[in-house]
Amino acid sequence: MSLNRCMLALSRVTVQHRFTLRTVPATTGVHKWTIPVQSQENGLCGVFQRRSISSGSSPRPPDTSLFVPVSRKTEMAEDGSVGLELSQPLEKGELLKVLNKFYKRKEMQKLAADQGLDARLFHQAFISFRKHVLETNALSADLHIVLHDICCGAGHVDDIYPYFMRHAKQIFPMLDCMDDLRKISDLRVPANWYPEARAIQRKLIFHAGPTNSGKTYHAIQRYLAAKSGVYCGPLKLLAHEIFEKTNDAGVPCDLVTGEERTFVDPEGRQSGHVACTIEMCSVTTPYEVAVIDEIQMIRDPSRGWAWTRALLGLCADEIHVCGEPAAINFIKELMYTTGEEVEVHNYERLTPFSILNHAVESLDNLKPGDCIVCFSKNDIYSISRQIELKGKECAVIYGSLPPGTKLAQAKKFNDPEDPCKVLVATDAIGMGLNLSIKRIIFNSLVKPVVNEKGEKEMATISTSQALQIAGRAGRFSSIFKEGEVTTMHRDDLPVLKEILSRTVDPIETAGLHPTAEQIEMFAYHLPDASLANLLDIFVSFSQVDGLYFVCNIDDFKFLADMIQHIPLNLRARYVFCTAPINKKQPFLCTSFLKFARQFSRDEPLTFDWVCRHVSWPLAMPKNIKDLVHLEAVHDVLDLYLWLSYRFMDMFPDANLVREVQKELDTIIQEGVRSITRLIRASEPHAVGGTLPGSPNPQSRTTSSRPRGGKALSQKSPSGFGGANSSLSSKLVQDGLLTPQLLEQLQREWATKLSKDAAPASKTSTGSKTQNNKTNMKKKKK
Ligand SMILES: Nc1ncnc2c1ncn2[C@@H]1O[C@H](COP(=O)(O)OP(=O)(O)OP(=O)(O)O)[C@@H](O)[C@H]1O
Ligand SMILES: [Mg+2]
User: Fold this and answer.
1) Is the pLDDT assigned to residue 50 strictly greater than 60?
2) Is 483 close to ligand 1, i.e. is its CB under 6 Å away?
3) Identical fold between 194-346 and 353-501
4) Cβ 213 under 6 angstroms from ligand 1
5) pTM score of the predicted model
6) Cα-Cα-Cα-Cα dihedral of 362, 363, 365, 369, to 10°?
7) What spacing in Å lies between the alpha carbon of 220 and ligand 1's midpoint?
8) For position 754, what pLDDT does the model report?
């Protein structure tokens, strides 16, 4: 190669790309992935926990399968055909040989690996580079000359390396900023994220004990006596309970949940006290007392980060933590990182509690004060229907009911004057709630969980979960001064006894979640990555120390993927994706998408728009399908309210929507009050609301139940899911399709069919779509 050519070639390659190959500094701990697949006790099934053991060795390499290459056009180089003019045209066959020879060079692979290109990335980068070289009309002059020289024997195949690396870094921009990405995703000292809390010396009091031992009660006594305080609870209902209790005690208290902000001051000024769901607590407002309830939730795979944030970040002179004794040592250890001492107050159960020696076996053996716990809505329907067939009334509580309906059902059950003496509930009642239950009856001991592959599977409940649920029996404040627990089925009872006899595994890790700022910084480095991909790369790069794990972000990614195609700025996109959405509800997901689309068009989501979207006003439910849809609409309105607190201008009609939601809650309450009528109406062959000659579903299913877990009845009373049922009815039964969506689909198919049949009308639709597209473009501009 001539000197001139050599100078030209090298001048095109940056110094860094030439031969100063940086190596990643060895700074941090060894990271090990522990996969507690069957760790039922700590409820972490399916969650990867990362533990960093010590400092001083290299960081864990990121998962490069997450690196999505940025597509590059095969266009002409800026310097046009200078390379061609300075040398000769390149012969493709020869080029291919040279390139493939380069690919096989072990030395090159090793050099590239030092730059972060592992075998997978090396291969991908090479394919892209080869395509670039062979398909680009005019290569950059430097590359053209180097390739020409190699082909003529005047250069070595290794001379390709800097150009190959330059290309690799263009398609994998993360390679050029690995250190920065590692630094941004360094989650090793979360205590330092809260400078306000670190600026004061906080006192921690841990109220430890079994369920129903007065932990929350004692913490709340101190909270009530303080000049200012914040209560952080795991459920909206618990926040409501404390909000009401505090105001009843004559201490003005506000309520803050994701969807609701109630200021008791008539002029809307903030009170000294606030009861909130834990995700909503402020870590910048100073309080005298803060209460963090159910601290064992800090290890929750999805929500644990909220407890970690509250514990490390709340700015209060006194932090009262309530929860299982299994968390004491861990909380003490966490507090060493902040230099704060923990004072432990231990409590005993206020009322006795016993595991019975016999299962209930038949619904004929139910007694007043019984609560049957199921882990599926279908079982709730089935059992409440069977109870009704026996001429008894029952209340039902499950997760997707609106708070007003849950409270109304709880009130009905708690009311000694009400004839309803039996409750059928999911584990939605499992935390902190005070209900008048004498006996907890587990209808099943298995619960659907998502495993580490993201698949749904059934797993036996953990000791902690079983204790929480059993702890609802014989509450100190109720009329029953003794609690009992048993199972519906004889063969489940030994399993329950075994679960309850185990000690709760000590808590060992706390959840963390990347912040919007961290993701924004990541996006700055990787502007072409999708939000879900950014999150994946973040988690892959992140470093946590042994006390923490990164929370499961699957729901976040699910939402991020759903709206990836909608043009939104990153901050708005991030906020949308943190919305608490049940992804199993299709109507809610569709609404989320529509909200995001409307938002991206900069068109405020008005009350009228929302009413049109949910077809308000809605009628009383006639059957279970209607009820399920109403629950979904309630969640859609919740989503509106949630977003209205984050984007007030774009969701301007929160007050009107809240009014409608209250009305809807009343309609749902009414429906649930007569839920057995709705179930009856959903049954096949229902004539005039009766079920002629119905066999006893209990006897139908109990004989084939596997041990340890199947529900009393696995079949929905609605009769869906039979061998002959259609795909659409199966989808409806599985909650993947609502009857309304089914109808909409049918309408759309019918329209499509008629359009396909009429070519003339096709043209008009086409032009309409075109107009819409043009309008969209105009708006975006
Ligand atoms: N000293 C007390 N005086 C009056 N009522 C009390 C007292 N201690 C507890 N209670 C009442 O007993 C019931 C159970 O108490 P609390 O909710 O504090 O229990 P807990 O230990 O927090 O239970 P869980 O683990 O289920 O949350 C509540 O209704 C509470 O108001
Ligand atoms: Mg409590």
Assistant:
1) no
2) no
3) yes
4) yes
5) 0.77
6) 140
7) 10
8) 63
Residue boundaries of the structural domains of the chain: 32-59, 194-346, 353-501
For ligand 1, say whether the CB of 351 is within 6 Å of any of its atoms. Answer: no
Give me the phi and psi of 723, to 5 degrees please. Answer: -60, -30
Q: What is the mean pLDDT of the chain?
A: 81
User: How does DSSP assign 282-345, residue by residue?
Assistant: -SSSEEEEEEE--GGGGG-TTTHHHHHHHHHH-EEEEEEEEE-GGGHHHHHHHHHTTT--EEEE
For residue 764, pLDDT over 60 is answered with no
Going by CA atoms, what residue is nearest to atom 14 of ligand 1?
212
Q: Which position has the token pair 């709206």?
A: 563
Distance CA 244, CA 411 (A): 15
32-36, 225-229, 541-545, 726-730: least confidently modelled range: 32-36
**Closest atom, ligand 1, to C-alpha of 219:** 18
Interacting residues of 726 by C-beta distance below 8 A, sequence separation 6+: none
Question: Is the CB of residue 464 below 6 angstroms from any atom belonging to ligand 1?
Answer: no
pLDDT(615) > 90: yes
212 touches ligand 1 (CB under 6 Å): yes
pLDDT digits (tens, 9 = 90+) for 647-690: 999 999 999 999 999 999 999 999 998 887 888 887 765 433 33
Residue nearest to atom 12 of ligand 1 (CA): 476
Could you tell which of 414, 476, 480, 485 is best to mutate to test the pocket of ligand 1, judged by most ligand atoms within 8 Å of the CB? 476
Q: Which residue has the higher pLDDT, 759 or 222?
A: 222
- Looking at the CA of 350, name the nearest ligand: 1
Spatial separation of the C-alpha atoms in residues 657 and 595, rounded to whole Å: 14
**pLDDT tens digits, 502-537:** 999 999 999 999 888 889 998 888 888 899 989 988
Which of 206, 207, 216 maximizes ligand 1 atoms within 8 Å of its Cβ, making it the mutation to test the pocket?
216
DSSP-derived pairing of the beta strands 439-442 and 394-397: unpaired
Q: 475 CB less than 6 Å from ligand 1?
A: yes
SS3 393: coil
Q: Which atom of ligand 1 is nearest to the CA of 214?
A: 18
| Strand pairing report for 342-346 and 253-257 | unpaired
* Rounded alpha-carbon distances, angstroms, from residue 522 to 116, 177, 189, 457: 18, 10, 19, 34
Q: Which CATH class is domain 353-501?
A: alpha beta
pLDDT band at 587 (very low <50, low <70, confident <90, very high): very high
Pocket flag, ligand 1, residue 87 (CB < 6 Å): no
Distance 218 CA to ligand 2 centre (A): 9
Distance 311 CA to ligand 2 centre (A): 17
Residue type, 601: R
What's the confidence (pLDDT) of residue 449?
79
CATH topology of domain 194-346: Rossmann fold (3.40.50)
CA angle 181, 182, 188 (to 5 degrees): 135
Cα 305 to ligand 1 centre (Å) = 26
Distance CA 611, CA 649 (A): 18
In 3D, which of 205, 175, 458 has the Cα closest to residue 311? 205
- Distance CA(119)–CA(124), nearest Å, equals 9
How close is the Cα of 211 to the center of ligand 2, in Å?
Answer: 7
Query: Strand pairing partners for 262?
Result: 255
The pLDDT assigned to 319 comes to 98
Distance 580 CA to ligand 1 centre (A): 29
User: How many other CB atoms are found less than 10 A from the CB of residue 651?
Assistant: 24
Determine which of 39-48, 409-418, 590-599 has the lowest per-residue pLDDT on average: 39-48
